[in-house]
Specification:
Elements (H helix, E strand, L loop, with lengths): L13 E2 L1 E7 L2 E7 L2 E5 L4 E7 L3 H9 L1 E6 L5 H9 L13 E3 L5 E3 L4 E12 L3 E13 L4 E2 L2 E2 L1 H4 L2 E4 L4 E4 L12 H6 L1
Antiparallel strand pairs: 1-13, 2-3, 2-6, 4-5, 5-10, 6-9, 7-8, 9-10, 11-12, 13-14
This protein binds flavin mononucleotide.
Length: 187
């Protein structure tokens, strides 16, 4: 295999979440692909949000936000939330919500909804990296397997860039922390 040098402005395939926050007394939602688990204990998430987003203002002011995992059936509504900004469009009625313990708006009809307390905000040149501690988690019972979300039932959305395309989860490939044992035995 030979490699060629490409533009460093590279995006990995990413899961899509809806970040919910109260801004100026109204719930607001934006899709985010730049999200990942950041700490094991206590559980923390990190999400990269552009300086100018209405959501960024809300997270800094409220100190709490929600991370909701929509199913693929919601793709058009998710995309809508990424086309308009809460600065000029009221998105508070787009989803039914319930308030978390810290008051962050949790999306009731998402299969998985997490409430986060803002732990830290790192100001990068164009984005804030908001690190939130997950202080509460809610899931639709139908997507659970042995008490945890089943990836196939969760049916999350993925985004690729720069082709700006949504994807579904593909079939399972191999067991993690297990299939590598064959290589270990060989080497
Ligand atoms: C699928 C998708 C993923 C996105 N991911 C991010 C992201 O990770 N970070 C970000 O700052 N903007 C992201 N955006 C753009 C924001 O969602 C968009 O600018 C939105 O309108 C901001 O809303 P707000 O101003 O109400 O917060 C994404 C948009 C889409 C459609």
């Amino acid at each position: 295999m030979s490699q060629v040098r490409i533009d460093p402005q590279v995006h990995l395939p990413m899961p899509v979440v809806l970040v919910g926050v109260m801004v100026e007394g109204k719930a607001n939602f934006m899709p985010a692909g730049w999200v990942c688990r950041a700490n094991y204990t206590p559980p923390m998430l990190a999400v990269g949000i552009g300086h100018g987003k209405w959501t960024a203002k809300g997270i800094k002011e409220a100190g709490a936000f929600s991370v909701n995992v929509p199913a693929t059936a919601a793709v058009e509504t998710v995309d809508y939330c990424g086309i308009v900004t809460g600065r000029s469009t009221d998105k508070s009625a787009v989803f039914p919500t319930h308030a978390g313990d810290l008051g962050a708006p949790l999306i009731s009809d998402c299969p998985l909804a997490l409430e986060c307390r803002l732990h830290d905000a790192l100001e990068l040149p164009s984005n804030f990296l908001f690190i939130g501690e997950i202080i509460g988690a809610w899931a639709e019972e139908s997507i659970l397997k042995d008490g945890a979300p089943d990836p196939q039932k969760l049916d999350p959305l993925f985004l690729t860039m720069p082709d700006n395309t949504y994807w579904k989860l593909g079939p399972a490939l191999a067991k993690a922390w297990a299939c590598g044992k064959a290589v270990k035995d060989r080497l």
